[in-house]
């Protein structure tokens, strides 16, 4: 018998990858399709994408993978899918899209004609969460469609996340993993089920129960690859599709963060810090922990919504020279920018950056800010200040979660685009004062998704046993105590006080 393999599809904001992973955690083959445009905007702040863009890209990468790895087809024991979160689609009873996807990046707001019911309005007010509830209602995609596209909403058979849509296209079944239920939907993370009609938050996104998909736990079978899906994708017909979870949840598992003494940092478009616990806890007041890909567990998480998007923003707006130099040398612009980080001392000689370019649930009035300019500062200072500012925000989230969860993080595991820079990894270790580890692959989400399938198919007794055989630390960056002391002083004395001091001005803005 050939060695068992898992075919994993990892659909991101910028691209989709397909990979074949073996039971030792090696990615034997990988194919990638970068979208011509990650999204389009009909209005400022909107972000939509045509369903065919995603499905055609999935078919492209899987067909190419099956061609390249033709000799290994017989060893594939399962298929998994991991995707971006909070990206929604309305479909009819045959699974045909009724409109284009609305992405997690979308910032449209809804002016709702229907108010929150009086009793719930009072309860939100008593809890001090009325502003947050109204913000959540206004940014929920389902509410926008109900308000402005009511006829389309009436025709909607299922309101799906992108994971659920891909599951349907592969198996013909409307089903999804509870570990994918992350978005503006009526899902109770603690009970890992759809909210009941009487639950307080149900009125924020009041989707009819019949429009919601069937839910299964990670490691359960979602269905089998259909003949039609096989024809389009090249994936062998009849293979089981195993439920895993979202890209961030799979990333945390793929980084081996299965116990509450390890935290996963994702330095992607959205920067996140997340850990795994078997006890439900809210990482911030009234913010749920997400169902983990590890069965029976949860992932408390804090996000910096614009995260390493800020690096692209800086590159586009301020780094024309570095972009030109990179083109001439044939290297990515980030390689030149990151090489200059070493020339700037910790703390950027007094420059402190607050990375809240996009409002969040707990900071609905937030804005970005940078303070401390003097005549010594250069573009390189601003670049490093952005990286430090993202990390300061993640430190703030970690310290809050440690207090609320009564846990102590001892080690950090890092993934995402920013993790490919040794200098950024070193800065992160020094700022947190903790060892920072990189594993053997940058495809942590795909690896985590495949780990679940190997456990589900009995190759390993459970996901934790699979982690022990499939995840290896490749690089470890140890903190410099002196630099950590500098950063902790800046965090305690400046960064942790900035938001409160600037909030009155943000409200006026």
Question: How are the SSEs placed, and which strands pair?
Answer:
Blueprint: E1 5-11, E2 15-22, E3 27-34, E4 48-49, H1 51-68, E5 76-83, E6 88-91, E7 101-102, H2 118-126, H3 130-139, H4 141-148, H5 150-155, E8 158-161, H6 162-171, E9 175-177, E10 187-188, E11 193-194, E12 214-216, E13 221-224, H7 227-233, E14 240-242, H8 247-254, E15 262-267, E16 271-275, E17 290-291, E18 298-299, E19 301-304, H9 309-318, H10 320-329, H11 333-339, E20 352-354, E21 369-371, H12 379-405, E22 411-415, H13 422-432, E23 436-439, H14 444-456, H15 463-470, E24 473-477, H16 481-508
Parallel strand pairs: 1-5, 5-14, 9-12, 15-22, 22-23
Antiparallel strand pairs: 1-2, 2-3, 4-7, 6-8, 10-11, 13-14, 15-16, 16-19, 17-18, 20-21, 23-24
Helix pairs in contact: 8-14, 9-10, 9-12, 10-11, 12-13, 13-16, 14-15
């Amino acid at each position: 018998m050939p060695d068992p393999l898992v075919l994993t599809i990892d659909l991101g904001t910028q691209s989709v990858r397909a990979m074949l992973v073996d039971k030792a955690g090696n990615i034997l083959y990988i194919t990638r399709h970068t979208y011509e445009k990650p999204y389009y905007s009909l209005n400022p702040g909107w972000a939509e994408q045509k369903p065919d863009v995603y499905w055609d890209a999935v078919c492209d990468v899987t067909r190419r993978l099956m061609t390249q790895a033709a000799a290994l087809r017989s060893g594939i024991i399962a298929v998994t899918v991991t995707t971006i979160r909070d990206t929604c689609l309305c479909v009819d009873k045959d699974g045909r899209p009724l409109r284009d996807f609305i992405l997690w990046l979308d910032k449209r707001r809804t002016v709702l004609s229907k108010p929150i019911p009086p009793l719930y309005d009072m309860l939100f007010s008593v809890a001090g969460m009325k502003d947050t509830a109204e913000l959540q209602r206004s940014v929920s995609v389902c509410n926008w469609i109900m308000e402005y596209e009511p006829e389309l909403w009436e025709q909607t058979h299922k309101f799906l996340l992108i994971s659920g849509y891909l599951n349907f296209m592969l198996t013909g079944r409307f089903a999804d993993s509870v570990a994918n239920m992350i978005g503006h939907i009526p899902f109770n993370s603690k009970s890992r089920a759809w909210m009941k009609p009487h639950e307080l938050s149900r009125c924020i996104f009041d989707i009819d129960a019949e429009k919601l998909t069937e839910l299964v736990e990670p490691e359960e079978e979602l269905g089998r690859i259909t003949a039609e899906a096989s024809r389009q994708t090249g994936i062998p017909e009849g293979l089981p599709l195993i439920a895993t979870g979202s890209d961030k949840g799979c990333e945390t598992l793929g980084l081996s963060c299965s116990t509450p003494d390890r935290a996963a940092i994702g330095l992607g478009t959205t920067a996140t810090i997340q850990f795994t616990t078997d006890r439900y806890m809210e990482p911030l007041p009234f913010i749920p922990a997400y169902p983990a890909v590890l069965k029976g567990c949860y992932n408390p998480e804090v996000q910096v919504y614009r995260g390493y998007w800020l690096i692209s923003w800086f590159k586009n707006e301020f780094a024309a020279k570095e972009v030109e130099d990179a083109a001439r040398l044939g290297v990515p612009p980030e390689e030149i920018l990151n090489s200059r980080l070493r020339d700037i001392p910790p703390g950027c000689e007094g420059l402190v950056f607050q990375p809240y370019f996009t409002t969040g649930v707990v900071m609905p009035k937030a804005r970005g800010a940078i303070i401390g300019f003097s005549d010594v500062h250069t573009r390189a200072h601003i670049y490093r200040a952005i990286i430090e500012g993202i990390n300061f925000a993640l430190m703030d989230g970690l310290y809050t979660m440690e207090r609320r969860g009564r846990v102590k993080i001892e080690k950090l595991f890092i993934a995402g685009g920013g993790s490919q820079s040794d200098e950024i990894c070193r800065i992160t270790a020094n700022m947190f004062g903790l060892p920072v580890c990189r594993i053997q692959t940058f495809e942590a989400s795909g690896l985590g998704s495949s780990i679940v399938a190997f456990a589900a198919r009995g190759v390993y007794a459970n996901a934790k046993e699979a982690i022990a055989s499939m995840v290896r630390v490749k690089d470890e960056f140890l903190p410099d105590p002196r630099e950590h002391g500098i950063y902790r002083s800046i965090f305690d004395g400046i960064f942790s006080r900035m938001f409160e001091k600037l909030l009155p001005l943000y409200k006026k803005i």
